[in-house]
């Protein structure tokens, strides 16, 4: 199964970063962010796209009640703010650093257009990535609409197993070391933090998993 909640398999940084191109290398810089720093806010001008050189970035928005809704957690090699090259003029989401040493490669829209105009293969890969991203977000929406909270959590954990799970050689359990808060997981699967906590404890009682602050262990009898 391809990743729904992450797009880690596509390292666009290796392909798109302007410092790879001689014409742009001299004037290109990286931007550094600490944990909880905002890269952009909702309603900011949408004139750049961004590549993650290192670190983690949270993409989200605030609903009418002022509650934060997390759309995605992105990592090294991933692209965000890409709607700027599709004609968006103002941001409809925020981007926030989750690490103390996040490094971002900003690319102006005009620079991106130049790169795409001069390299057909490059342009094709960019649009292919954007299409894949929208397709996966559509799939996520279907899960939110038609699956119950426990099923959504199990599918989320299954994705984490594929992305970052490691087998314990002694027990056969799948160990997931992660950086999510419970609030972020709850938002990603479309439920509340209290409900998430209830489901986690139910799955623990069912011998499906065990969990700690930054580790989830999928037990061998179900992994």
TrEMBL record:
All copies of domain HTH crp-type, residue ranges: 147-222
The keyword Transcription belongs to this UniProt entry's keyword annotation: yes
PROSITE patterns membership: CNMP_BINDING_3 (PS50042), HTH_CRP_2 (PS51063)
Domain Cyclic nucleotide-binding stretches: 12-91
SMART domains per the UniProt record, alphabetical: cNMP, HTH_CRP
Keywords of this entry: DNA-binding, Transcription, Transcription regulation
Nucleotide-binding in keyword set: no
Protein name: Crp/Fnr family transcriptional regulator
Organism: Formosa undariae
Lineage: Bacteria, Pseudomonadati, Bacteroidota, Flavobacteriia, Flavobacteriales
